[in-house]
Amino acid sequence: MKTVSIITVNYNQSYITEQLLASVYANNRYAATEIIVVDNASKDNPVPVWQVQYPDITFIRSETNLGFAGGNNLGVKEASGDYLFFVNNDTEFTQELVESLVAIMDENPGVGMVSPKIRYFDQPTVLQYAGFTNMNYYTMRNRCIGQFEVDNGQYNNNTGPTGYIHGAAMMVRRDAIVKAGLMAENFFLYYEEMDWNDHIKRAGYQVWLEPKALIYHKESVSVGRVSGLKEYFMNRNRLLFIRRNAPSALTIMIFYNYFIWVVTPRNIINYLRKGNKGFSALLLRAIWWNLTHDKNSTNLGYPLN
Question: Are 171 and 210 in contact (CB under 8 A)?
C-alpha cells in the first residue's frame, strides 16, 4: 500500500486550516496517510496549540513567509509519502477523494500529477475545475474546463490527460519530484504550480484529471479577491512563467509584445474604471522586474511587510 502525505500551508488563517483538518478526519479513510501543516510565519503562531490538539499531525513553523511554493517545499522535505497530496488550506475533503487519486497513480505509473474535480464551497453544485486546456504560449492563455457550470456529471468520464493540474489540490508522485525538482520558490504566489506542471511534463510524466474525485474550494481566503499583492504577482509571474517555459526565444518576444501593447493598456483602463488605486504602478513594476532580473532571481520586487 503506497503512502500519502497530505501537505497544506497556513498563513494567518488558523480557523480555516482547522476546518480543513476536520474535513480530512471526517472523510479520509485511506489508512496509509500522514498530514503535514506548514505555518508560513503567521502573526499569531498556532503551532503549539495544534501540536496538543492534533498530536498525530506534523506541524512545521517557518519564521519567514516563504510563499506558496516555499511553504509546500518545507512540507516536502519532511514528507515520507510515495505520493504527496498538496491541498490549499481553504479546501474541504470528500469521501473517496484520496483513494480515487491513489488509484490513478497506482494504475498509471506514467502519471506524475493528478487533480480531482473542484467545486466552489459556497456554491456546492457549481464547478470550479474539471481540467485545463493546453497553454497558448503566445498569449499565455488557456481555459479552465467546466468553470461556473452546474455539475451534472458531464465531465465524470473525462479521466485522463489534461493541460494542467489545479494548485488547490494536486497529488504528485515522489519520483516525479525527484526528477523535476521542487516548486520554484521565486514565484512566491501564483503560477508556481503551472510552472511545476510544465517541468514535470518535461521530465517525462503525464498530468491527469480524475473527475470521480471531488474537493470543495473556498478560494482566495489568504490573499483576498482583489489586492495589490495579488495583482503584482499575477502580472509578474505571468511574464516569469513564459520566460521559464516558452518553447523558443521567438515565442517569448511575441508574448512580450502582446503583453505590453495589448494586456497592459487594457489592464490600466480597467484599473482606472474600477478605481483600483496604485494597481497601474504595480503592473509597471511587474514588467520592470522581468526586464531587469534573471528568471531565477529570488528578489521578489515587492515589500511583504
Answer: no
Mean pLDDT, the chain, rounded, equals 95
The three cell numbers of residue 295 are 528568471
Q: Which residues pair with 93 in a beta bridge?
A: 215
Supply the DSSP symbol for 187.
G
Rounded-to-integer distance, Cα 198 and Cα 209, Å: 15
Question: Residue 126: is it exposed, middle or buried by C-beta count within 10 angstroms (0-12/13-18/19+)?
Answer: middle
Task: Please state, in angstroms and rounded to a whole number, the distance separating the CA atoms of residues 305 and 288.
Answer: 21
What is the rounded end-to-end Cα distance, in angstroms, of the chain? 44
Number of Cβ within a 10 Å radius of residue 58: 17
- CA–CA distance, 36 with 53 (Å, rounded to integer): 14
For residues 81 and 60, give the distance between their C-alpha atoms in angstroms, rounded to a whole number.
Answer: 17
Question: What whole-number distance in Å separates Cα of residue 144 and Cα of residue 44?
Answer: 35
Asked if 136 contacts 167 with a C-beta cutoff of 8 angstroms, the reply is no
- In whole angstroms, what is the distance from residue 303 CA to residue 234 CA? 15
Helices (H) and strands (E) in the chain, counts: 10, 10
Instruction: Give tens-digit pLDDT for 138-161.
Output: 999 999 999 999 999 999 999 999
